[in-house]
Amino acid sequence: MDAITLVEVSARHADLAYLIGKLDEELLQLYPSDEIFGVDVDDPEIEEAIFVIAYHNGIPVGCGGIRPIDQESTELKRFYVDPSRRNHGIAGRLLVYLEQRAQQFNFSSIKLETGPQQFEALQFYRKHGYCEIERFGPYTDCPSSLCFAKGL
């Protein structure tokens, strides 16, 4: 595979919106819409989040972000790689990048939410050292939410 470039972008970046749209389409095939937790780009706290896009030959093929939960932990949000580009190491590069950025801000852990129908995601997170935890925050009462965390 040719070079992958990672670029930090704002929450309102057009390529990020495009990739999140693709992620939402995929999730809507698996879960009811009220069980999909997006990112509100109009929330003033969105400025605290960091988003990154993976480009392959100038084409946006993956994305992810982290947003603070509290002083100690951050949350992995809107993590996605286009299905045609999966299994090429892009997700791993995105994850390592975001984990390093979280460490730069002195977070001691990253938490995330995914669902039981996302088999590839579950395997990926476990492979990268994430362990299942109790549901947290907005996911506490969502039956299709599985939550994971990793110490940094």
Automatic annotation (TrEMBL):
It comes from the Bacteria. InterPro entries: Acyl_CoA_acyltransferase, Bact_Acetyltransf, GNAT_dom. It holds the Pfam family Acetyltransf_1. Keywords: Acyltransferase, Transferase. The keyword Glycoprotein does not apply. SUPFAM superfamilies: Acyl-CoA N-acyltransferases (Nat). Coiled coil: none annotated. The keyword Acyltransferase applies. Residues 4-152 form the N-acetyltransferase domain. PANTHER family: AMINOALKYLPHOSPHONATE N-ACETYLTRANSFERASE-RELATED, AMINOALKYLPHOSPHONATE N-ACETYLTRANSFERASE-RELATED-RELATED. This is N-acetyltransferase domain-containing protein. The lineage of its organism: Bacteria, Bacillati, Bacillota, Bacilli, Bacillales.
